[in-house]
């Protein structure tokens, strides 16, 4: 009995020593940085290595769409230091005074930023003052040729083709869904014209009977599993999908598409801006950018990373579309409140019927 008590005491002492010595490492941190980002948008191992190197704890919250992020940042539901969102949302937050100018002197690795990605954003932020690009890409159609009889998809029109009834995955995002319908009609994806927006709404309503599912993050997995013949997807998901299902193909529709950039930005009310800069600079290291590329398979605009890529990766026209393809693409812009309300109302009508 005494021996048993002694063993229990020894175990308790050992556990106690482990706890005090930092098995739960909270006592080792010098502070925290609060980050709000799209879900699963960088290699989680980088959080651990950043914390080990800097002793700054990363507190990460995630969201699904830019429209979900907006009220959280606007209302300061949480005082985030660093956020990652899309180009048009950066513009909106910037105009509302919710972002801080980026002090590039605090980013030793900013020198690796690809000028092409910066130029993509200069229609919303002329001097790239408020954002640091994280990833970029296009939207297009992913399809499985083995499930298609007849011509392969090459146009947004194919998403209205009756032969694909219950075989289409449509994006579950307001701006991207209207982008598809507007560009199919030959209109700008930033249209403010009521007749054009009404056309897009009506076409999306007609399309509903053909749609198998509205989806964002699960589109890739559904296509891998053969749940549908084709779907709208962002280019960054395609390489991974093809690794899992070699039958899958991707095309930027002939009418053109959305050229998007997701960016890091520092909030105007950030409490730990120095920690935000440390994390951001860590992400800009070429080896970490490449680690993110391997994890995400999204294009990352880091010239130092390009040197670490193999020839096949560098020459991928999915990751890096040709200038000819990009000329047909447009960048989403922030719209005025009146137009945003029209989009929102029309999207509710599409999803509600």
Short description:
This protein is an alpha/beta fold and 353 residues long. It is built from 15 helices and nine strands. The chain has helices at residues 2-21, 45-54, 66-74, 87-95, 115-120, 174-184, 194-207, 219-224, 238-244, 273-283, 286-296, 303-306, 311-314, 323-327, 337-352, and strands spanning 31-38, 56-63, 82-86, 132-143, 168-171, 211-215, 230-234, 249-251, 259-266.
Explain what the structure shows.
This protein folds into two domains: 2-130 and 261-320, D-Maltodextrin-Binding Protein, domain 2, CATH 3.40.190.10; 137-258 and 329-352, Periplasmic binding protein-like II (D-Maltodextrin-Binding Protein, domain 2). Strands 1, 2, 3, 4, 5, 6, 7, 8 and 9 form a nine-stranded mixed β-sheet that branches. The chain has helices at residues 2-21, 45-54, 66-74, 87-95, 115-120, 174-184, 194-207, 219-224, 238-244, 273-283, 286-296, 303-306, 311-314, 323-327, 337-352; strands at residues 31-38, 56-63, 82-86, 132-143, 168-171, 211-215, 230-234, 249-251, 259-266. α6 (174-184) crosses α7 (194-207) and α7 runs parallel beside α15 (337-352). The N and C termini lie far apart (72 Å). The chain is 41% helix and 16% strand. The protein is α/β, with parallel strands linked by helices. The chain has 15 helices and nine strands.
């Amino acid at each position: 009995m005494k021996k048993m008590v002694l063993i229990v005491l020894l175990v308790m002492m050992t556990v106690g020593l482990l706890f005090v010595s930092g098995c739960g490492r909270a006592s080792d941190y010098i502070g925290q940085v609060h980050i709000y980002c799209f879900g699963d948008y960088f290699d989680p191992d980088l959080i651990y290595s950043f914390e080990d190197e800097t002793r700054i704890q990363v507190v990460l919250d995630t969201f699904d769409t830019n429209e979900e992020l907006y009220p959280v940042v606007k209302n300061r539901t949480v005082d985030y230091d660093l956020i990652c969102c899309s180009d048009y949302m950066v513009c909106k937050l910037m105009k509302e005074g919710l972002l801080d100018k980026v002090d590039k002197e605090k980013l030793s690795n900013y020198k690796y930023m690809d000028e092409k990605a910066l130029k993509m954003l200069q229609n919303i932020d002329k001097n790239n003052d408020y954002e640091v690009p994280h990833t970029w890409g296009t939207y297009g159609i992913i399809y499985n040729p083995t499930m298609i009889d007849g011509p392969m998809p090459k146009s947004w029109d194919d998403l209205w083709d009756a032969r694909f009834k219950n075989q289409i995955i449509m994006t579950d995002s307001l701006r991207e869904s209207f982008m598809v319908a507007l560009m199919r009609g030959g209109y700008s994806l930033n249209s403010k014209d009521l007749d054009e927006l009404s056309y897009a709404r009506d076409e999306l309503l007609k399309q509903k009977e053909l749609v198998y599912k509205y989806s964002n993050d699960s589109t890739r997995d559904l296509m891998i599993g053969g749940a549908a013949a084709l779907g709208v997807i962002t280019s960054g998901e395609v390489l991974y999908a093809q690794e899992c299902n070699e039958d899958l193909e991707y095309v930027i529709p002939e009418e053109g598409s959305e050229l998007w950039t997701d960016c890091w930005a520092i909030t105007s009310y950030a409490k730990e801006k120095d920690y935000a800069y440390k994390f951001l600079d860590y992400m800009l290291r070429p080896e970490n950018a490449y680690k993110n590329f391997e994890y995400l398979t999204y294009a990352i605009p880091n010239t130092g990373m390009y040197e670490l890529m193999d020839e096949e990766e560098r020459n991928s026209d999915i990751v890096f579309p040709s200038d000819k393809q990009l000329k047909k693409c447009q960048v989403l812009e922030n719209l005025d409140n009146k137009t945003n309300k029209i989009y929102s109302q029309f999207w509710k009508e599409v999803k509600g019927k």
